[in-house]
UniProtKB/TrEMBL annotation:
Nicotinate phosphoribosyltransferase N-terminal domain boundaries: 8-131
This protein's name: Nicotinate phosphoribosyltransferase
Pathway: Cofactor biosynthesis; NAD(+) biosynthesis; nicotinate D-ribonucleotide from nicotinate: step 1/1
Keyword Transferase: yes
InterPro entries, A to Z: Aldolase_TIM (IPR013785), N/Namide_PRibTrfase (IPR041525), NAPRTase_C (IPR041619), NAPRTase_N (IPR040727), Nic_PRibTrfase-Fam (IPR007229), Nic_PRibTrfase_pncB (IPR006405), Nicotinate_pribotase-like_C (IPR036068)
Organism this protein belongs to: Abyssicoccus albus
SUPFAM superfamilies: Nicotinate/Quinolinate PRTase C-terminal domain-like, Nicotinate/Quinolinate PRTase N-terminal domain-like
Sequence ranges assigned to domain Nicotinate phosphoribosyltransferase C-terminal in this UniProt record: 358-467
Keyword Ligase: yes
Protein family per UniProt: Belongs to the NAPRTase family.
Length: 486
């Protein structure tokens, strides 16, 4: 499933802007874009950044095919322009957070710099990848937060995912954020995840008899988990599973039973008793059926006896907040003299005003506590690592402020692609999972609770804040001039 043929996976308006830039001869001017989201998904206190691997694969393979050219020609684009598009390869620089990093609203996750025509045309695909994968990783992380370390999490969502790509990259995002495995075999193969699974009701229905079905399964498989709720969980399903295990003794490993309907709290407790009484104290109870972090939390409060959770629809679709809403905004562009000039997008809505300039983001770690004090957005030429003290203040309510002395400023944006060449090697899932763990350890618990978390500080440096305000003033002057000319 190569990305090679996906150059046209972009919005028509990107190509139309490219055409105008080309006709005006400005298409190779250097431009800088920030990719970020504006509000926290699921009202969570943090998000988990995922999507970079696909972004890099996409940019490396970004190229028009002959069929694409023919198609664009049929839309009446001229040959000169098509020749330019055809010769395009991504030659820009990409600065990005690494996958698995905790991230927050209104801070650049990725900064893309390069010839205007290139960095504009890739907007749609980059947003597509990061919006979905970061959303699903964040949902998965919320689910992980409400379970205990000895419980397993299995991603079961493929059948309900928004098509194949979403199922596979969503499985990867879920495992990055703490799931143990996925039922999707291709995702497991492709991304080196653990494939996991039990069997379906149809298997029992096919035999129309639980005893026959479980026996048949056990003849073919040493590792057995039996689905016990097809007819009557406590009266037939669990007792039959125990009967089969008793008969087959060591020729199988009776690893578990799965419950997929009914009152999970009650059924899991009663099933646990039946299994324990029969001596199967190590046999696990696996539960599925429309689960999410809320139902899981509820079930745990009720004392449900669950070892493993299988979660599909509500995870893989980001069910209760299905769009991250990340945007890609121009922050600077080369002028006629070859100098980068900062740019802004104003809005009546303060949250929608973009922050101009080439910027970096640092996580300010308090050296005494080891915990993060907040994220600090600077202009790219600032060096907060070298400073003795950092002034963190809320960018809107500026009276909310603190001074940090003994700190480490950890840069979050890394140069992952330089002049179109990948500068950062593909990482293993384990390495990315470790980054998730480390990144979450740096956060106080107040940011990690699933309901009403504290708002994490994402602040601008004084220079960045002043630059933004100056540019807002300049736009004010510009608007006045336009009005006066009328
Ligand atoms: N004790 C419980 N407390 C809270 N929620 C529960 C409890 N037991 C089950 N649930 C959840 O309640 C919902 C029950 O859904 P529903 O009524 O559709 O399932 P069902 O009728 O038992 O099974 P089926 O999916 O086969 O129709 C599921 O989301 C399930 O996870
Ligand atoms: O409930 P989810 O979180 O999406 O998890 C995946 C579901 O998929 C399977 O059901 P299936 O598709 O066979 O149908 P069902 O809804 O009737 O159980 C499985 O038994 C789970 O219930
Ligand atoms: O393996 C399972 O039990 C499974 C896989 C996908 C969906 N529902 C259940």
């Amino acid at each position: 499933m190569s990305n090679t043929h996906h150059f046209l996976h972009t919005d028509l308006y990107q190509i139309n802007m490219a055409k105008a830039y080309y006709d005006e001869g400005v298409h190779r001017r250097r431009a800088v874009f920030d990719l970020y989201f504006r509000s926290m998904p699921f009202d969570n206190g943090y998000a988990i950044f995922v999507g970079l691997e696909r972004v890099l694969q996409y940019l490396q393979e970004w190229q028009l095919t002959d069929e694409d050219v023919a198609y664009l020609k049929s839309l009446n684009y001229d040959d000169d322009f098509l020749n330019v598009l055809k010769s395009l390869r991504f030659s820009g620089d990409v600065y990005s957070m690494l996958e698995g990093e905790a991230c927050f609203n209104n801070e650049p996750l990725i900064r893309v710099e390069g010839p205007l025509i290139e960095v504009q045309l890739v907007e749609t695909a980059l947003l597509n990848f990061v919006n979905y994968q970061t959303l699903i990783a964040t949902k998965a992380s919320r689910i992980k937060q409400v379970t205990t370390d000895n419980q397993q999490l299995m991603e079961f969502g493929t059948r309900r995912a928004h098509e194949m790509d979403a199922a596979q990259w969503g499985a990867r995002a879920s495992v990055i954020a703490g799931f143990n495995g996925t039922s999707n075999v291709e995702a497991a193969k492709r991304f080196d995840l653990v494939p996991v699974g039990t069997h379906a009701h149809s298997f029992v229905q096919a035999y129309n008899d639980e005893y026959e079905a479980f026996k048949a399964y056990a003849r073919s498989h040493k590792e057995c988990v039996f689905l016990v709720d097809t007819f009557h969980t406590l009266k037939s399903g669990v007792p039959t599973a125990i009967k089969v295990a008793n008969e087959l003794k060591d020729s199988i490993n009776f690893n578990g039973i799965r419950l997929d309907s009914g009152d999970i709290a009650y059924l899991s407790k009663e099933s646990r008793k039946l299994l324990d009484e029969a001596g199967y104290t190590d046999t696990k109870i696996i539960v599925s059926n429309d689960l999410d972090e809320y139902t899981i939390q509820d079930l745990m409060h009720q004392g449900a006896k669950v070892d493993s959770w299988g979660i599909g629809t509500k995870l893989i679709t980001g069910y209760d907040d299905p769009a991250l809403g990340a945007v890609y905004k121009l922050t600077a562009i080369e002028n006629e003299e070859g100098q980068l000039e900062d740019r802004i997008k104003l809005s009546n809505n303060a949250i929608k005003v973009s922050t101009p300039g080439r910027k970096d983001v640092y996580r300010i770690i308090n050296n005494v506590t080891g915990k993060s004090e907040g994220d600090y957005i600077t202009l790219a030429d600032e060096e907060p690592e070298e400073e003795q003290m950092i002034h963190l203040f809320h960018p809107v309510h500026t009276f909310k402020q603190k001074f940090i002395h003994d700190f480490t400023a950890r840069p979050l944006l890394q140069l992952v692609m330089e002049s179109g060449q990948r500068r950062y090697a593909k990482e293993s899932i384990e390495a990315i999972q470790e980054r998730v763990n480390h990144s979450l350890e740096e956060l106080w618990d107040e940011y990690k609770r699933p309901s009403n978390p504290e708002e994490y500080p994402v602040d601008l440096s004084e220079a960045c804040w002043e630059n933004k305000n100056q540019i807002i003033k300049n736009v004010g002057k510009y608007v006045k001039q336009v009005v006066n000319k009328k």
